Amino acid sequence: MRPEETVDYFLKIVWQTVANKYNQIAAEYGITQALGYMLINIHEEGTTVSQIASLSGVKSTSLSRMLNNMQDLGLIYRETDPEDKRSVKIFLTPFGVEKRQIAKDVVKKFNEYLNAHLSDKERLQLIKSLNKINQLTFDYKPQ
User: What tens digit of pLDDT does each residue of 9-63 get?
Assistant: First the structure.
């Protein structure tokens, strides 16, 4: 079977194209696609490191490096959770809030563009198919 005959080939190619486009746009604002995604997932009331890890799917060593980088850039700060001293919450600085809004706007405009070029039927079928592939992948047990 040739790579271009597999479903996962197209999933990878499409995601790489999307990520590259987001990185090109994000670079204009001094961030990366990954940083933008992290910013979008940090909430006003703070987000625990474990919540960020589960939302982003990033390994703990990479997440730690990314959070340190974000702190060095002045995008976030950390506070120990007063209710659970073992837990650390991540908060956005005013600069981080500004960059998060830019990231949200970029995602919104890109999705508006996609939606303008896909029919509702195509979009819903794509989402349905991707959800099915996700579930099948989760359920897959190699023989």
Answer: 999 999 999 999 999 999 999 999 989 999 999 999 999 888 888 888 788 778 8
Q: The whole model's pTM is what?
A: 0.84
Do 75 and 35 meet the contact criterion of CB atoms below 8 Å apart? yes
Residue 24 lies in a domain: no
Q: Classify residue 90 by burial, with Cβ atoms within 10 Å: 0-12, 13-18, 19+.
A: buried
Length of the chain: 143
Element (H, E) at 91: strand 84-92
Cα distance between residue 34 and residue 56, in whole Å: 9
Q: Please state the domain count of the chain.
A: 1
